[in-house]
């Protein structure tokens, strides 16, 4: 994970911490697609920061380890996310679902504006 992404991940994690959400609570909220716990902005950041396949491959050996203290905070968080089956796909689909109504409304407004020209 590059430094910029790591810094962004730390900011996101601090936002969750301010809401008293542990990594496990975030994982549960994502698994349940709980809109009350994960904002659209949080979701967008999670999608953007999702680890690449190379990063996932580097983290996999730590999934079975009980000692992850050598990992950075962001990497520990992503290990928690990796417990969600198909988490990257789930996040992406959830993002589409969350923005779908806004997209349809925008298209409708453009269409109405266009027909009145």
Name the helix and strand elements from N-terminus to C-terminus, one letter apiece.
HHHHHH
User: What is the general shape?
Assistant: elongated
Structural class: mainly alpha
Radius of gyration: 17 Å
General description of the model:
The structure is a single chain. It is built from six helices and no strands. The protein is an all-alpha fold and 117 residues long.
Features of the shown structure:
mainly alpha; 6 helices; 0% strand
Can you lay out the helices and strands and say which pair or pack?
Elements (H helix, E strand, L loop, with lengths): L2 H16 L4 H9 L8 H10 L3 H11 L9 H9 L5 H29 L2
Short description:
This protein is mostly helical.
């Amino acid at each position: 994970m590059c430094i910029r992404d790591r810094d962004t991940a730390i900011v996101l994690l601090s936002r969750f911490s301010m809401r008293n959400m542990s990594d496990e609570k975030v994982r549960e909220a994502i698994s349940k697609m709980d809109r009350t716990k994960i904002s659209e902005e949080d979701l967008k950041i999670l999608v953007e920061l999702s680890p690449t396949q190379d990063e996932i491959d580097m983290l996999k050996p730590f999934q079975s380890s009980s000692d992850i203290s050598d990992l950075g905070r962001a990497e520990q968080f992503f290990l928690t996310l990796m417990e969600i089956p198909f988490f990257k796909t789930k996040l992406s689909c959830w993002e589409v679902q969350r923005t779908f109504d806004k997209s349809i409304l925008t298209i409708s407004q453009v269409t109405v504006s266009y027909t009145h020209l």
